[in-house]
Design brief:
This protein is mainly β. The chain is built from three helices and 14 strands.
Length: 277
């Protein structure tokens, strides 16, 4: 119902079957499927965080929304993104977290698949852009979160001084208000380690590791209705501190049941940043 504090929508949980899940970001070898996992669509309530009694916080729920206009005019221009947007993101990351240093290490522009297409793992379309990712996932695991520190910071003296760091995702729409396939975020306080299942992600030159999530009735889902390009959603993907802070925040795109039929396909940019405290 438009204006309601929540919507009901199917979310794509992994269904464990004894094998390690693998997903490809490029066309796999002949006979190999793009994804080998089975997914369990569960209808869940996704709450509009704008109507929450208490504004979500990064260190508590694992996410928060900032009004953070950008100077970037063309997110398809990699040079403009890497120079201007990366600097904006570093400043935003430090303001949100209170960290001492922030390192942006990658970004990805997505465009939603043709309307009514099934949300997948977000494989690239003919346009070269990644599609919206409808599989519930967290970008880092315990292992890959620890590994990322060494990939970002190569100076051993700097490394030796680090006592805590986290990896955050900064997500924003690049065009138009998001009516179609918003991003749903799971409250980190409702996620247990036992809900998470490590998955290999195959890239042309490497294999990454992320978490998929199995279903739990404990999960509480939220989204920010009608996000606009001047807004940025910041959410936690890993934290080296084990207690007292959010650590993993599963998320996925979902088909909004009340999206207008003529809503423009969602276009967005996500950027990952390692913050040192």
């Amino acid at each position: 119902m438009p204006g309601s504090s929540y919507v009901l929508a199917p979310m794509s949980y992994v269904l464990p079957d004894g094998q390690r899940p693998v997903s490809y970001t490029f066309e796999p070898p002949a006979g190999i499927p793009w994804e080998n996992a089975t997914y369990d669509l569960r209808e869940v309530a996704i709450h509009d965080a704008r109507q929450a009694e208490q504004e979500p916080q990064l260190e508590r729920e694992g996410f928060e929304l900032w009004d953070a206009p950008t100077s970037v005019k063309n997110f398809m221009d990699h040079e403009e993104v890497r120079s201007d947007y990366y600097q904006e993101a570093r400043e935003l990351a430090l303001a949100v977290t209170g960290g001492k240093q922030a390192y942006v290490f990658d970004h990805l522009v997505r465009r939603r698949e043709t309307r009514q297409a099934t949300l997948s793992f977000g494989r690239r379309a003919e346009s070269g852009l990644a599609a919206a990712n409808g599989r519930i996932h967290n970008d880092y695991t315990e292992q890959s979160g620890q590994k990322r520190l060494g990939l970002v910071i190569r100076d051993l003296e700097v490394m030796a001084q680090i006592r805590r760091y986290c990896i955050i995702n900064i997500w924003r729409p690049t065009h138009n208000t998001v009516l179609d396939t918003p991003l749903a975020i799971c409250d980190a306080r409702t996620v247990r380690q036992s809900h998470l299942l490590a998955c290999d992600v195959k890239y042309p030159n490497r294999t990454g590791e992320i978490y998929l999530s199995r279903f739990s009735p404990r999960h509480r889902w939220s989204y920010f209705a009608e996000m606009q390009p001047h807004e940025a959603l910041i959410f936690k993907q890993y934290d080296s501190q084990f207690n007292g802070v959010s650590r993993f925040t599963p998320h996925a795109a979902f088909d909004h049941p009340h999206a207008p039929l003529d809503a423009p396909p969602r276009e967005s940019i996500e950027l990952r940043c390692l913050v040192v405290f």
